[in-house]
Amino acid sequence: MDKKSLIGLGLIAGILGIWLYISGPSKETIARNKAIKDSIALVQKKAEAELMAKDAAVKKASDTLKINASDLTISALTDSAKTVLLTDQYKDFTPAVTGKEETFTIENENIKATILNKGAQIIKVELKKYHRSGKSEPLILFDRDSLNFALKLNAYDRSRIFSTDSFYFRSAKQTATSIDLKLETSKPGSYIEFSYSLKPNDYMVSSEIRFVGMDKIISQTEDQLQLNWSMLYPSQEKYIKLEKKAATIYFKQTINSPDYINALKDEEKELNDADIKWVAFKQQYFNSAIIADNAFAKGGSFIKTSSRPNSETVVKAVSTEVGIPYQHLPNEKFGFKFYFGPNDYKTLSKYELDLESIVPTGWSIFSYINKWMVIPLFDSLNFMNMGIVILILTLIVKIVLLPIAYKTYMSGARMRVLKPETDALAAKYEKTPDPMKKQQEQMALYRKAGVNPLSGCFPLLLQFPILIALFAFIPAAIELRQQDFLWATDLSTYDTIWDFGYVPFINWAYGDHVSLFALLMFVSTLVYTYMNSSMMPQQNNQMPGMKFMMYFMPVIFLAVMNDYAAGLSWYYFLANMFTFLQNWIMKKIISDAKIRAQLEANMKKPAKVSNFQKRLEDMAKQRQQLNKK
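Request: output the structure for the sequence above.
Response:
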């Protein structure tokens, strides 16, 4: 742009600025407009206030005239008018519409259940033998603010639908361990009764719903009633983020094995393919289950989970609706039970209802390792500190796997003493354009020496089922809950020696803290990896990518274990330390010179080719011929 153009643009900008200044409003005009605007805003504000006041008055008047279960005083109506309106709305259930809320308790050595007369529902359960992290009072499994339990009643040929949580029940009979609550109707001899009772030293609440003379009230078109149960899981552990990863719903249908909703998903699942035996609201270490004596009807039944990701007190919202068969008899009942207690494998197993499936023991062979070895060991040594029990478990596992460890060591030792021969082959074929020839020569050497390069891999694979089984069970083992050991205050969750807070990407990949047990496991795994690679240098030279993976995997494992149960990191660390000790002892006992002598003696014998080795050689020759073509 030339000089004249710049001067022209500057003049245009100046003229525009002067014109805007001259034509703009004066200070007096601005002040006058502001006063008018403020006056309009004040008028609008007063109008909104008057409108809100009118709405509140209308709502108050509406609430005064509204007829519902909590309507105790309707000053605008006479007693006779109130009776007429209530009867029209609730018909035979009118006597139970009004009342005063009362609570009752039943308890034994394990639990204390609080029952509300409105709805005859258990609204609070305390587990006497457990407590929340950092608290001394009994653990509250749930309370009134987090629960609803109601039976839906389709009455008068479906012209009315009532819910029992709207009605007041009357205490008919009560002891320290049992209570009967009766929902009375205006028809003589017609009522619904809820019964709850506890046995000594038990976590089961035996329950029964009795229908007496209700066949004329409940709709004749209904062959089942719907029982609705919903709950907000309260946080009960040290770290709510771990609770949210474990909280879900389990269920068992009569013809199927127990199943569940993925804890990391929100889902609503219909249960219409078979009758239902039980539904369990599973928290990290406890559960609340409803169990039919026979079966809940499948029609209209469902389960639902809903996360609360931003809540620091609520873990998850869950609900279920199951059917209760109804046969329209003058007198019938439906029996069921509640389980309120720990996710303890031994405790749940004794009921023989498959409730123990709630405890994650792993699948297939992994579950048997936990059921037959780990869980019995934890039960038999529960009088000891669980950190010591894990040490004993590690020692037992290492003794059981000692033959496998011996074979693994011998395989590495044979490969190590053959290093001069394999180095010579590497030097001989260093510049050869035919790498297959080098592999064939190495296979021939191994065959003559009686060495199987893969023999060290199979024993290691046999150890994986135990590692995976413990990975599934230990974080869920209630035996470790709130068990302190060394610097860890709770072996069931991660230990921390430094909480550094939020750091971008670091929190996503590693976490916001440093777990010392996980760090010890990581360092010992690196040392173990180095020792293995130094014992089998030939395999590392042949597969450099594998060497990288051997050192990279412990890093990934550290990121996972940093948020995992400290008890599991403690086990892996101990396993590595016992392996170091085993290898050191074997190295002292087993002489490399004797292994060398044995291999040299093997090489002097006529070589025997196994079918597996012959197939490997044939495949190598075929690849060689294809490469030549």
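The chain is about 45% helix and 25% strand.
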